[in-house]
Write a structure and sequence with these properties.
This protein is of the alpha+beta class. The protein has two domains: 170 residues, 2-Layer Sandwich (Fructose-1,6-Bisphosphatase, Chain A, domain 1), CATH 3.30.540; 141 residues, D-Maltodextrin-Binding Protein, domain 2 (3-Layer(aba) Sandwich), CATH 3.40.190.90. The chain has ten helices and 14 strands. The strands form two sheets. Strands 1, 2, 3, 4, 11, 12, 13 and 14 form an eight-stranded mixed sheet that branches. Strands 7-6-8-5-9-10 form a six-stranded mixed sheet, with helices on both faces. A hairpin with a 2-residue loop joins strand 13 and strand 14. Helix 2 packs antiparallel against helix 3. The longest helix has 19 residues. The radius of gyration is 19 Å and the shape is globular. The termini are close together.
Length: 333
């Protein structure tokens, strides 16, 4: 089940893709789109087949092949996969044809691998780029506690507040009752008490089984349906989401939240401060570009093949702009 390598010309991308121009160049945004499209198409052909590792490997191989021919030199700062030994673009891995420009990459070729394996909506292929040195490197951290807020309430609450206080402060800033707030919390056993306490206030709580990048997007997109994201999720996803949150003027904080003994030992050995609250400026120190392409539907439609044509739906977020791009391009195996 090999997938084609897509290029910006295949993706229909050019210097008009992002407006106003990305800080790392319009051409790179085109390559990002081509990379997520290739990864999404490769993963989608494993959707519902019950083999998450094969889907992960296919998407990673397709994205790596596309990024290998991109201009300049990219350094993978954080990539999903290390915590469970899945195929991945590894931290510190170099991509691109070499030379300038130089840039950081945060990447998850297949976000929500299990959803893809089970043929369920919600899987995405994601990537974010920023100037070299701009993205926070989580090192041995796999998990972090997160707070994502919409632009209209980006400074209304903090991780140092109790969950109930966050609701009250965000509701006041948005001019809503607490009972009108919609909160996204991953539906994990670790969040049982958090979800119960939020619902006890009357707030509406969505608990998807996976996908806190999509959850963060639901908070900051102009047509998003959530007012806040709370809870512990992956650190790579935190950096990816941070790039989109910053580009759209939202608010975000994070705090290391190890969930495994080996993770905690590695963080303690590195003298990491488990109590420190990371601001959005800590996570993303310069303007970034975020791109996602749908794999199994949900936020973004799944890839479709019509004869020799590939149809995909993607989001490109940069410099305060959001573009939802539906593309139809020829497939060359």
């Amino acid at each position: 089940m090999s997938a084609p390598v897509l290029t910006p010309s295949d993706a229909g991308a050019g210097r008009s893709l992002v407006a106003p121009p990305s800080r790392i160049g319009d051409e790179l945004a085109g390559w990002m789109l081509a990379a997520t499209r290739a990864a999404a198409w490769a993963a989608a052909r494993w959707a519902g087949r019950g083999d998450p590792r094969a889907a992960d490997e296919a998407s990673t191989t397709a994205m790596r092949a596309t990024l290998a021919t991109a201009p300049g030199t990219g350094t993978v700062v954080t990539g999903e996969g290390a915590k469970d030994g899945a195929p991945m673009l590894a931290d510190g891995e170099l991509t691109g044809a070499g030379g300038s420009p130089t840039y950081d990459i945060a990447v998850d070729p297949l976000e929500c691998t299990d959803l893809c394996a089970h043929g369920l909506p919600g899987a995405l292929s994601t990537i974010a780029l920023a100037p070299r040195g701009a993205l926070w490197s989580p090192g041995p951290s796999f998990y972090m506690d997160k707070l994502v807020l919409p632009p209209a309430a980006r400074q209304a609450a903090s991780l140092t507040d109790s969950p109930e206080e966050r609701l009250v402060r965000v509701a006041a800033r948005l001019g809503k009752a607490v009972s009108e707030l919609r909160v996204v919390v991953l539906g994990k056993p670790r969040h049982r008490e958090l979800v119960a306490s939020l619902r006890a206030t009357g707030a509406i709580v969505a608990t998807p089984p996976a996908g806190d990048v999509a959850g963060a997007l639901a908070v900051v997109l102009p047509d998003g349906e959530a007012d806040m994201l709370l809870g512990v999720g992956g650190t790579p996803e935190g950096v990816l989401a941070g790039c989109a949150v910053r580009a759209l003027g939202g608010g975000m904080e994070g705090r290391l939240a190890p969930q495994r003994d080996d993770e905690r030992r590695a963080l303690e050995a590195s003298d990491a401060d488990l109590d420190a609250v990371l601001t959005l400026d800590d996570l993303v120190r310069a303007e970034a570009t975020f791109v996602a392409t749908g794999v199994t539907g949900g936020l973004l439609a799944a890839p479709e093949q019509h004869g020799g044509w590939l149809v995909t739906e993607s989001l490109v977020i940069a410099a305060g702009t959001v573009q939802r791009i539906r593309q139809t391009t020829p497939i060359e195996e």
